[in-house]
Amino acid sequence: MNEPSDALVFFGATGDLAYKKIFPSLQSMIRHGHLNMPVIGVAKAGWNLEQFKARAQASLQEHGGGINGPAFEKLCSLLRYVDGDYLDPTTFTQLRQALNGAAHPLHYLAIPPSLFGQVAQGLAQSQCNQGARIIAEKPFGRDLKSARELNKTLVRYFPEDAVFRIDHYLGKEAVQSLLYSRFANTIWEPIWNRNYIAAVQITMAEDFGVQGRGKFYEEAGAIRDVLENHMLQLVACLAMEAPAGDGEPLRDERAKVLSMVRTLTPGDVVRGQFTGYRNDPGVARQSTVETFAAVRLWIDSWRWAGVPFYLRTGKCLPTSCTEILVQFKKPPQQVFGREARGQPNHVRFRLSPQVVLALGTRVKKVGETMTGVDVELILQRRPKDEMEPYERLLLDAARGASEFFAREDQVEQAWRIVDPILGHAVPVHPYAPGSWGPAESGKLIIGEGAWWNPNSQPDAIEKEGVA
Ligand code: BG6
User: Fold this and answer.
1) Whole-prediction pTM value?
2) Beta strand spans in 7-102 (E)
3) Cys-Cys with 158: which of 90, 95, 162, 465 at CB 3.0–4.6 Å?
4) Is residue 104 among the annotated active site residues?
């Protein structure tokens, strides 16, 4: 189906995701001239349209950078609201009426995965699935088994090319830019393999806790919440082979490389929980859910055999930052032998809060001796009016462009990788808020290396006159 969507329906319209991400994206889409279709919110809150508009207004004030007068006015003219239970067929009859003959609605399931099946079925029974597309929010299932069941349910009512499994990391400008750089330059390919690369580290750190999402988080934990999806997408973008072109080949290669990632075992993972998590509303007093996870994974491919990929994520860490560090091997010999060996080369991709590409290299110190210093050559970009991931992905889905969405096989590979470490496969270690997680995570690193801590690193490298 190539026709663009002509109505946007979002389930979970009074929920957290709509409040924090969807309304702000809608206002931005209007500002960029990208939204001209009715937007129908569905929820069971006992609300009317005016209350729904008030919610949109509050969301834009809190999370959308404020109200943009003309854009908000237009948004209000597009908003519709259907109040009802997802189990009740009349909710879908009302939706059918609100769609007012739209031929290609885009249905966004901003609801817990346990409700996906019910809503998909309601859409089918009311024929709201005809000519439609559906966006499913992550996490897509809870494990491999439930993800497979969910896939089966969705494709019963929607063909695979109409299913858009969203992972907002794929909509991030920084992630798309990483992917672009890999395949738009010649310099990376000769060194992007086991012959030159010693290890890869990815840290996704957040300096805040669960922010009132304790109930959700108790069901998820760091592995289900971000490691299985956002972080494995980053691994796929870094490690995949060159695709035959954009579009579907991009999804083929992401799925292929994940299919070569070895299934994790308990020895590859360290789980942590920050002290104080159990006092959060919605969290069990004896909870053993992880707010920190670190893993060591291996890709059994010709390109990556023997190169460890270290992934680490956590809440209440010292900083909020997502960074990838590609560490190269040491030079084969030390020619200028009377100094301490420097650090091997690295490439550092900072994905947030700023976009940074840095090349770690060693240069000679000015002076009479042949001694050196480690420096970074840094490229930093501050784009103006960048599209937020949800805006970009909603736009893509409305156009039927699926390259930055996860396909069924990729989602199943991701769950296959983490399945044995879900739940209580390994103990959870306490850690102090503001620390880099439990010390046990250091044991995952093979050899003499250590975790690269994003914010502290610039101080660890002497900066010497390189502009
Ligand atoms: C979400 C997780 O998917 O991603 C959150 O549910 C996490 O727990 C968030 O904070 C991080 O996204 P971003 O874009 O802020 O890095």
Assistant:
1) 0.94
2) 7-11, 39-43, 79-83
3) 162
4) no
